[in-house]
Amino acid sequence: MAKSSTTIDVRHVAELAQLPLSKEKVNRFIEQLTSVLHYMSKIQKLDTSGVKATSQVTGLENISRQDEVDTQRMFTQQQALSNAKRQHKGFFVVKSIFHQE
Amino acid sequence: MLLDKPIKELAKGLRKHEFTSVDLVEECYQNIEKLNPKINAFITTIPKETALEQAQAADSRMSKATSILAGIPFVLKDAYVTEGIRTTSASNVLEDFIPPYSATVYKKLLKTGSILIGKMNMDAWGHGGSSENTDFGPVRNPWDTERVAGGSSGGPAAAIATRMAVFGIGEDTGGSIRNPSAWCNVTGLKVTYGRVSRYGCIAYASSFDSVGPMAKSVEDCAVILEAIAGKDKYDSTSSPKEVPNYSSLLEENIQGVTIGIPKEFYGEGLDGEIKTSVLKVAEDLKQVGAKTREISMPLFDYGLPVYYLIGPSETSSNLSRYDGIRFGNDRENFTEETMRRIMIGTYALSAGYYDAYYKKAQQARTLFIKEYAKALAQCDVLLQPVSPTPPTKVGELINNPLQNLLADIYTTSQNPVGVPSLAVPCGFTKDKLPIGAQLVGKMFSEELLFRIGYHYQQLTDWHKRRPLL
Question: Is the dihedral of CA B429, B157, B154, B469 positive or negative?
Fold first, then answer.
C-alpha cells in the first residue's frame, strides 16, 4: 500500500515468533503487514511525554495466595499426557534443539 | 416457540409444569437440525441423548429452590475449556484437543443446572470481527446467509438469533461479543474487566479479555451475569467486588440519567442508516426521563492503534505456548490472520521497536483511561454505534486484512480501558439487516447499563424480532 518509513523484516520476525512461513506467504505478509503497521504508526503523532504506561486495569494490587499445593488442580501423569501426539514411557517427546555439525 | 420466551418466563413455566426442560432441549435440537446446516454456528454439538439425560435430571430436581437457570439450554463460544469435551478455539491447532479441566464460567453454569448443548464457531483465538477466520467454515448471518454473522463470537450470536439455544457465553477482547450481537440482532454484554473469571478461557489478549453473556434481551443478560460474575481464586484479576442482584433492579427508573453522545463516534465512515438508528436510542430514552448531552472524545482516532498494538503483543506471547508437543498441532496450523497478529505483536515487542510501538501504546492506553473518565464525568453513560457498517458479505473482510481491522473501530477503545458496554438491537436497515447500539459506562456500572437497556427494550421491540429462515 502506502510508502512509509515502516519496514518489517518478515523473515526475522517469523523466526522470533517460531512461525514456519512459505516464500509465498513471506511476500504476501510483507505487503499486508506494512500496510497495517503504517496505519498503526499514527500513534507516533500522539504526545505521550511523561505519561506512565498502563499494563492492567483491575485496580488490584499484590494479589497473592498461600504457597500450597492445590490438589484440586493437579493432573495425573496420564491426564497431562492425554493430548500429547508423541510420548515415550510416560514422558513428552520434544524436538531436539542441538544439531550436530 | 418456547425458546422465544425470556428466561424468567421459562423458569416459571418449568416450575408450574407447563412444559419441561426436555421440551426446551428438544426444541433446540429441532432448530439445530433444521437451521445449523445453513448457518454453521456449531463446531461441536453435544450428543442429543446426553443433553436430554441432563434435561430429565433437571426436570426431576426442579423446585423453587433450584437456580433460575436450571434446565435452560445454553452454548459456549469454543474459547472455554470443557473437561472431556473437544475445545478448538476454532483453530486446527486445537482440532482434537480434549481439555482435562473446565473453565470457571462453565463450572458455575453447570452448578445452576443449565445444560450445555454446543461449543460454538468463532474467529480462531478471537482474531477477527466476522467469524470467517475459522478452520471450521464461516458462520453465516441468519438475516442474510450471504453475509457474515460478525465476530469473533459469531456462533453464539447466530445460534441465539435462530433459537438453537436460550443463551450463550461469548468472550470480548475488542468487540467480540458486541459486534456479532449487533449484526445478528441479539443482546450482549462486555463486562468490566475482572467482573467474570477468565479461568479456563483460552487467552487472546489477557489484559483485555472479558467473559460475558449473550441472549435475547437485557433482562436475560442480567439473570446470566448474576450466575457467572464474582471473585475466583483461580483468576487473580477477578474482582472481589460484590455482585449486585442485577435482575431485581431493572425496573428502577432512569429519571435524570444523562446519556452522552461523543460526536467523534458519529463522523466519517459511519453508515447513515446506522447513525440515525443509534441516535434514535437517545431520543427514545428521553420518554422515560433520560437526558442527552453532546460530548467530545478527541482521542477516538487513536483507539485502533492502541488496540492493535497491545492486543497482538499479548497474543504473540499467549500463543507462544502452542508448540504441538504437550497438546495440539504444530504452529504451521495457524491461519494467516492469526499469523499476521502474532507477527505484528512480535514486531511491536522486538528489540528496537518496543519503545516506539508497545510502550507507546501502553502510554496511550493511560491517556484513554483518562479520556473515558473525563467523558463519563460529564454524563452517566455513552451511546455509541457498534459497527460502522451493516454485516458484510462473506469474503469481504477476510480478504482485506487492513479493512478487517478497521471494522472494529467503535468497539476496540473500551477494552484497554476496562469499562463495560452493553450492545442492544436498535433497528434495521432498508435491506432488513440488524443494527446495534452500545451503552458504555463507568467501571462496574453493569447495573445501570442493564437498567437503561431494560427500559429501552420496554419501549421498543427490535430485540424480539427474529430472522425468517
Answer: negative
Residue of chain A minimizing CA distance to B359: A53
| Mean local confidence (pLDDT), A18-40 | 94
The residues spanned by each domain of chain A are 3-44
- Is residue B152 part of the annotated active site? The answer reads yes
Interface predicted TM-score (ipTM) of this complex, two decimals: 0.93
Interface test with B, best of A8, A37, A64, A75 (most B CBs within 10 A): A37
For the record, the C-alpha cell of A70 comes out as 492445590
Confidence at residue A95, expressed as pLDDT on a 0 to 100 scale: 84
List own/partner pairs for B29-32 with CB under 8 A and 24 or more apart.
B29/B117, B31/B3, B31/B162, B31/B163, B31/B164, B32/B117, B32/B118, B32/B164
Q: Is the pLDDT of residue B124 over 90?
A: yes
**The residue type at B195:** R
Mean local confidence (pLDDT), B100-114: 98
In this prediction the pTM is 0.97
CATH topology of domain A3-44: Histone, subunit A (1.10.20)
Nearest C-alpha of chain A: how many angstroms from B467? 36
- Cis before residue B114, ω within 30 degrees of 0? no
Q: What was the pLDDT predicted at B469? A: 85
